[in-house]
Design a protein that fits this description.
About 80% of the residues lie in helices and about 0% in strands. The chain is mostly helical.
Amino acid sequence: MTLAVFFGCTFIAFGPAFGLFIFTIARDPLRIIILIAGAFFWLVSLLLSSLIWFIAVKASNPQDERLQKGLLIFGVMFSVLLQEAFRFLYYKLLRKAIEGLVALSEDGYSPISIQQMAYVAGVGFGLMSGAFSMINLLADALGPGTVGIHGDSQLYFLTSAFMTMVLIFLHTFWGIIFFHGCEHRRWWEIAAVVIMHLTVSGLSFCNPMYVGSLVPSYLLMAAAAAWAYLLSGGSVQNLQRFLLCLQSGASPQPGS
């Protein structure tokens, strides 16, 4: 049973993201480099926010439960803001990289667009975030022990896997929206990403009432996906054509 929980939660949390990596990133070495660098930027932001939270906890009274809860909320919110700050720094770095690629290119064009960089960087942020969210839970899923034996919810591992999956997708969509806002100086798009990130992180405090955190998170993911799709050049007509091709069994023709 422990192996079934382990592999089930692993495939739920990382299966869709692994599919994105295989089909859209793995064949291009430049995209792999951007993904790894994005994961590194997220990791550095986590290390810095963890250090600040650790110092704050050690400097406070551990017997004051109200204070400790407040520090936990502060740590989560500060971590979100620091992640978005590092996303902005990564955008600046990639913007400089594009200028260098254009200078080295024979035809004067970059081999990868800023929209593609935004997508790959978002996947990198999401994968590293998901790895840190699930790695300890997956280790515990191998046993020994039984979830919910003391009356707690038996859906803990399953809901954690679904939450990790939605966070990976959200980071991907947030990356597209955030980079688009930076590129076109639409600061309200950047602010929207920060607010959505703060909201999803704050919803985690609803646990163990998992419906209160999962349902709103998936609704936000659907909204962010639609927004990122439109910013990437998608349209309702393109989506209708794609669905019609699927229904007819035909392959969509480029340029049609």
